[in-house]
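User: Can you predict the 3D structure of SGNH hydrolase-type esterase domain-containing protein? Sequence below.
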Amino acid sequence: MANNTGNPVGSTAAKDLSDNAENLDKFANGDDYEYDDRLGRSRKSLKWIEDAALAIPAIDAALRSEQEAERAIVARSGSEAARDAAQLSAGIYVDTLDGLANTVTGNFFSVPSPESSEYLILYLNDLGAAVEQKRYASSKVSEQLEAGNFDKVGLRMVRLSVESGYLWALVDSNNRAAFLIDLSGAVVIPKFLRMDIAEQRLAEIDGLGLKAGAGFKFVMLPPESGYVWALVDENNRIALAVTVAGKVVGNFDLSAAVGGLISSQKDLYFLGDSLTNGANGQITWREALAGLISPRNHTNIAVGGQTSPQIVARAGAYVTLLTLAGNLIPASGPVAVTDRTIGLLTSQGSQSIKGRMSGVYGTLRRAGDDSYSFTRETAGAPVPVGKKLAFAPDIGTHGFDTWLIFIGANNIIRPDEIKRDIAAAVNAMKPVDKRFLVMTPVTGDSRYTAQCEEIEDWASQTYSDRVLKIREFSFQFNDGSAGDLADVAAGIIPRSLRGDNIHFTTFFHGKIAELVAAEINRRGW
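Assistant: Sure. Here are the predicted structure tokens for SGNH hydrolase-type esterase domain-containing protein:
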């Protein structure tokens, strides 16, 4: 713009009149579709108006063509539906022989389908021969599939041999695969219609207990579990799960004796030290908890004096590496353990633990001199092994329990180790929707307040409201004495709540039990 004065509309200034004349020339004679007026606003030119006018009939014709196409699709769909209805209404007969006997060539007839997932099979009488035309699904099929129930529509999960390249498949009664799970856990939609039994060597699912006929359904999971949906059986065992990222994964451990459960069970599994197991004759929070929640099994593996690595290793979160005398598991009898990385067994608690080494099941024992030995459960051929052989504790089905984790008091000087061990314990749990509470470690020594705070902050950031900060929780129960107030100011458990430097009184154990019970009851666990 030559002058660009910015004067409002209606200006008679000579410069504005000059700009207007320039813009009129652009509007009437220019080749561009748009131009800027003297106030900087974009305007359409005469060229744009002329070309748009020429395009309107073509646009109108295209719209009419699209509408006519849509009407044709609807009409065709209606015609097909009417055709199907007419064909089905032609007559339903007991079997094809009855249908052929009561129709003439060129006519249609239907017979009930033997498949539970189908309603009718449509046939054409073609010169006295019954030629199948179409199969119609039962009206109940859609309802069942929408409800997530596969057993009523003839679908079942089956295990495949590893050699086939797949682990599992969802198949119908004719062994046709709806989808397969490959060795990486990815879902594969098959390009073939039928899986050959001899080639794939199908077998019933024994390991996960997902037998043919089990009622499968899709369920929604809380996002904090890392998943949004899962396909489960009537006992809540997982066949497939969908992550929050949209990836489909499977819980397909071929050696598993127990299937993956969607949620932890009500039974409680206590991981801890003497603050859980008890000391000084006080009634512990663990013991008091039983009367505050619904009845269930309580399994306590807390051992006084143990550090967090020892505790979580006994829970199966870690393996301890053992070296055996002669690097050999003998045919029978005990063999001395000459070296170990984690002391699973200590002076307190059980002096034995069952588990597996190099595929051999047996018992690890501790003697009074703190030496270890391993004895296989069943006699067999000697098994040569190398040094530092992994020993995996057998915790049975407790991996599916609700875990209450209160560890770290005996190694509070190593906060990074405690954080690692808490995370390992949570990761060791088997279900997708894990039920657990983390009770952060405490101290009666102000020199370790900073370590407690570090662990509390990390745990809260990592596990949100699954974390119970026992140290901070204790402050409200101080008795108002100078000593208690000094302890609160120092960030440690008030001395009136302790029987010694660290262990709680029955009163404070009871308060912890009330806190834990409130969380369990609030969450419906």
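Confidence is low (pLDDT under 50) at residues 139-148, 191-214, 251-261. The chain is about 30% helix and 25% strand.
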